[in-house]
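Suppose a colleague, Dr. K., hands you the sequence of a protein chain of 255 amino acids and asks what its three-dimensional shape might be. Before reaching for any lab equipment, you can write down a predicted structure in C-alpha cell form. Begin with the sequence itself:
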Amino acid sequence: MVAAVEITNVSKSYGDVEVLVNASLVVEAGTTLGLIGPSGAGKSTLLRCINHLETIDSGTVEVHGKPVGYRREGNQLFELGHSEIARRRADIGMVFQLFNLFPHMTAIENVMAGPVYVRGMDKGEARTVAMEHLRAVALENRADFYPSELSGGQQQRVGIARALAMDPKVMLLDEPTSSLDPELVGSVLNVIRELKASGMTMVVVSHEMQFAREAADRVVFIDHGEIVEEGPPDKIFGAPERERTRAFLQRILKA
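The predicted structure, expressed as C-alpha cells, is then:
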C-alpha cells in the first residue's frame, strides 16, 4: 500500500507543555484513520500539523512523499514561503469543528472560494464545481443561503463540500460532529461514510466511538501527546493491549 500521510517522530510544545511526543504513524492511501483519546491529548494538534496549520518542533510530516510546509535540503528542512505552503496545502482538505465558514459569503460562494483564489479556476467553472459538491451533500437548495441561515449540520456539510471542491488527496476532519445537536449528527456522519466508500483518504478525530469503530480502517489512541496504541477497530475496541487504552474506553463507553 502507498503511504498517503507519513508522520515520523513529530514533537510539538507550547512553551513548557509538550503536546506531541515523538508521534509516528502512517495512513495508507484510500483508508480512513480514526484518532481517539481524551480532551487535550494532542489529537487536533496532530491533525493541524499534517497541513502545517501548526508548525512542528522536530520530526517530519509528509503527504504523498512530500514534506508539508517545508523543503528538504540534504538532511535539513526549511520552511516554505506562504504562497508555496498554500499550494501544497491545497491537496489537503480540512473540515473544522466549528465550521469556519465565511459569514459574508453564501454557501456556494464559500465552496467556490478555494478553487477561485487558490487554484485560479474561472468563476463560472468554479460555480459548476461548487454546485456539484453541494448536491453531493444534499444542499443544492441552500446554495444561496448565508451561514447564519443554515443549521449547524448544514454548515458542516457546506464545510465538507468546500474541502472537496479543492479536489484534495487527503481529507482531515477535526471533531466534525462535536458542535452539532444530536439530531444533526447523523447527516454529517452519512456524508463521511460516503466519502470513505468513494476511496477518499481520511484522518478523522472523533469522540463518536461507534462511528470510529464502524468507519475507520485503523484506530489510533493518543494520550498526553503519545501514540499509545494503534490497530484495527476490532482490536482497539475489543481487545486493547495497553492499560491506558482500556481505562479510556471503559470510562468513555460508560458515560
